[in-house]
């Protein structure tokens, strides 16, 4: 049971972590509560669903879906948030705008794909992998691997590439970065494209694992956001481990009490952190880096 | 001369038509509002409910009253059900209401009571039937639970794990099953989960450790499909029984060959008509919708014939409460004192992806 709890924590936590890292990355250069993050992930999943319906090979489906979600993320930035920022929109106004975009997106998905629950792969033909002491579905193993690969990649990218350093500079102070000649909007756009790819990946994997429905974006966003806040919104590692911590707390709750406690536990922890340690678990440590 | 005769014939024909129109216009019109899920997750069921009501209207021969059904879509969303009901009551000024699903029924019931309008809900939630004007027609939890428990007893089970989603009607089914099992000395343990639960790994692992003889599931998509996926992926070799739920599984292949307790669909003629009309083989609620529309029309028509005036909601409610021995699409119908029509449960098996009624 303990092993199941840990493995399940890894699976669930990895799913949360992908969104948490994307949320953190976007928030580092564009600090507002971006509701469209959930929509970008859902778009990736639905594009994959539509392309699979046309009988395209999986590798092509993945590539096109990631490009589409990345493009969508970039277009939102170019078409909505950058012009609003230029007009001096506050984070609150940007958040409200993103809520509007999310609502429109959800309605469009409803119209195109219907509100029925859809899965990318037939449930009855899911591949199972034997990992010695238990069997887990291939897609869940892929979620874990993807999440860890993205985490390692982002850590390398942010700390060992020139663009990564520019992103961190904008994160530290957008005003100073502007003064020293960094093109903030270009950097934000790069982050938007990158975030789109991460979220697109998450959408496809979720589509295979648990299925898609138009309202899925909100759930993905909330769990990812709670994970990021628990770990420390200002750090990538905080977002990653915060998501894992959230999954662990939820799973312990399910193991000790009952399944219906899952969301309650998540929100109690969220409120507890917001009131007692709003900077999250890791923020102080990362700030010194 | 020929032209004159032809002209006279045309004139006579037009006059006849006009008279007929006048006669039709002079007939009283009874408006019945229908709160139906024509879009959303259960749009296919909702559309079939609409079709069944249309069939009932076509089949009901009344020379005294014209019946008009006004459909309002609530998309299987509580908030929209309230808006739709208020629109039907205040704008369309309907004389009676029909609602589909326990979710809509729970919303419409108090509003209908307040407006003193007869409300017939196609659902099996006893709460909906509260008040003088509210009635329900759908096989109640009792007969469904009895049939299911009989299946469980046949398997000589001593313990049952009950998995149920937090949805009022499905919780009521599960309550009825649990009570009946306990009254027969069969041990039970309840595992409840939320509507949007997508992770059942630990819950199923916990249940697995207790070695239950039978597992029972009562859920709706998407949690139902994830539950089933996890159940089969974990190779849990325990009989899985259900009330209704398997009807709604998105991946029909996963439930192929499984049997479950559910409600009767309706007579074959009605179901064939539905398939011919829109190609659907999803008959859930169809017979009940047909019955509800027919009963309301019969009540208004019979009372009008007797009194010569449009009956009030109180008169229609009294008429419906006295209903006995009416042969409906889902069998012989009897109204109980609480406004709940009693009907029987059946066992179905998923054969080639189609729920097919089978002998026990």
Largest interface (C-beta under 8 Å):
A-B, 31 and 35 residues
Taken together, the total number of domains of chain B comes to 2
Described by strand count, sense and barrel closure, the largest sheet of chain A is: 2 strands, antiparallel
Q: Tell me the name of the CATH class of chain A.
A: Mainly Alpha
**Shape type of chain B:** elongated
Q: Approximately how much beta-strand content do the residues of chain B carry?
A: 15-25%
Stretches of chain B where pLDDT falls below 50 for ≥5 residues?
Answer: 19-24
User: What quaternary form is this?
Assistant: heterodimer
Would you kindly provide a brief summary of this structure?
The complex is a heterodimer of chains A (289) and B (360). With 289 residues, chain A is mainly alpha-helical. Chain A has helices spanning 2-29, 36-53, 58-86, 91-113, 138-160, 162-172, 174-179, 184-209, 216-231, 236-256, 262-276, 283-287; strands at 128-130, 135-137.
Explain what you see:
In chain A, 76% of the residues lie in helices and 2% in strands. Chain A is an all-alpha fold. Chain A has a single domain, classed as ABC transporter involved in vitamin B12 uptake, BtuC (Orthogonal Bundle). In chain A, a hairpin with a 4-residue loop joins strand 1 and strand 2. In chain A, helix 1 packs antiparallel against helix 10 and helix 2 packs across helix 8. The longest helix of chain A has 29 residues. Chain A is globular and about 55 Å long. Chain B has 360 residues and is of the alpha/beta class. Chain B has 2 domains: 206 residues, Response regulator (Rossmann fold, 3-Layer(aba) Sandwich), CATH 3.40.50.2300; 122 residues, Rossmann fold. Chain B is built from 11 helices and 15 strands. Chain B is elongated. At the A-B interface, helix 1 and helix 10 of A face strand 7, helix 7 and helix 8 of B.
């Amino acid at each position: 049971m303990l092993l199941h709890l840990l493995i399940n924590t890894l699976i669930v936590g990895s799913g949360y972590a992908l969104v948490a890292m994307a949320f953190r990355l976007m928030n580092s250069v564009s600090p507002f509560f971006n509701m469209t993050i959930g929509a970008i992930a859902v778009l990736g999943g639905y594009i994959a669903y539509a392309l699979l319906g046309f009988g395209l090979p999986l590798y092509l489906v993945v590539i096109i879906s990631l490009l589409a979600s990345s493009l969508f993320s970039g277009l939102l930035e170019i078409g909505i948030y950058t012009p609003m920022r230029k007009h001096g929109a506050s984070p609150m106004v940007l958040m409200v705008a993103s809520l509007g975009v999310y609502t429109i997106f959800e309605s469009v998905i409803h119209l195109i794909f219907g509100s029925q629950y859809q899965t990318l792969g037939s449930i009855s033909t899911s591949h199972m992998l034997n990992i010695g002491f238990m069997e887990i579905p291939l897609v869940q193993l892929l979620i874990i691997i993807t999440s860890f690969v993205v985490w390692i990649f982002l850590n390398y990218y942010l700390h060992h590439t020139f663009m990564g350093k520019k992103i961190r500079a904008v994160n530290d102070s957008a005003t100073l970065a502007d003064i020293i000649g960094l093109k903030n909007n270009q950097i934000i756009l790069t982050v938007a494209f990158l975030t789109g790819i991460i979220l697109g990946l998450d959408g496809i994997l979720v589509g295979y694992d648990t299925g898609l429905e138009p309202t899925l974006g909100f759930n993905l966003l909330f769990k990812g956001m709670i994970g990021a806040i628990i770990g420390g919104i200002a750090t990538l590692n905080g977002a990653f481990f915060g998501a894992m911590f959230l999954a662990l707390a939820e799973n312990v709750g399910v193991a000790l009490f009952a399944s219906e406690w899952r969301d309650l536990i998540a929100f109690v922890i969220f409120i507890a952190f917001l009131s007692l340690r709003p900077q999250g678990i890791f923020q102080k440590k990362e700030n010194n880096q | 001369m020929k032209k004159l005769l032809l002209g006279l014939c045309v004139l006579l024909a037009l006059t006849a038509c006009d008279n007929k129109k006048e006669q039709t216009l002079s007939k009283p019109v009874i408006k019945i509002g229908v709160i139906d899920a024509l879009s959303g997750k259960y749009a296919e069921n909702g559309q079939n409910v609409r079709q069944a009501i249309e069939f009932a209207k076509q089949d009901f021969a009344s020379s005294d009253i014209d019946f008009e059904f006004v459909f309002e879509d609530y998309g299987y969303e509580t908030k929209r059900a309230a808006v739709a009901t208020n629109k039907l009551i205040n704008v369309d000024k309907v004389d009676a209401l029909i609602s589909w699903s326990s979710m809509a029924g729970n919303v419409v019931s108090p509003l209908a009571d307040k407006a003193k309008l007869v409300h017939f809900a196609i659902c099996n939630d006893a709460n909906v039937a509260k008040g003088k004007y509210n009635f329900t027609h759908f096989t109640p939890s009792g007969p469904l639970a009895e049939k299911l428990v009989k299946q469980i007893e046949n398997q000589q089970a001593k313990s049952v794990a009950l998995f149920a989603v937090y949805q009022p009607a499905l919780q009521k089914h599960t309550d009825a099953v649990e009570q009946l099992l306990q009254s027969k000395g069969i041990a039970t343990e309840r595992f409840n989960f939320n509507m949007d639960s997508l992770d059942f790994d630990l819950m199923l692992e916990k249940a697995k450790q207790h070695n239950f003889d039978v597992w029972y599931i009562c859920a709706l998509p998407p949690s139902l499909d994830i539950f089933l996926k996890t159940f089969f992926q974990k190779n849990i070799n325990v009989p899985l029984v259900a009330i209704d739920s398997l009807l709604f599984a998105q991946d029909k292949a996963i439930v192929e060959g499984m049997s479950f307790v559910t409600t009767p669909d309706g007579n074959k003629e009605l179901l064939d008509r539905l398939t011919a009309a829109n190609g659907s083989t999803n008959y859930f609620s169809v017979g009940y919708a047909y019955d509800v529309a027919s009963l309301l029309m019969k009540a208004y028509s019979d009372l009008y014939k007797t009194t010569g005036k449009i009956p009030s909601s109180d008169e229609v409610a009294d008429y419906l409460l006295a209903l006995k021995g009416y042969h409906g699409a889902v069998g012989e119908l009897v109204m109980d004192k609480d406004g709940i029509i009693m009907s029987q449960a059946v066992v179905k098996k998923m054969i080639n992806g189609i729920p097919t009624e089978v002998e026990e």
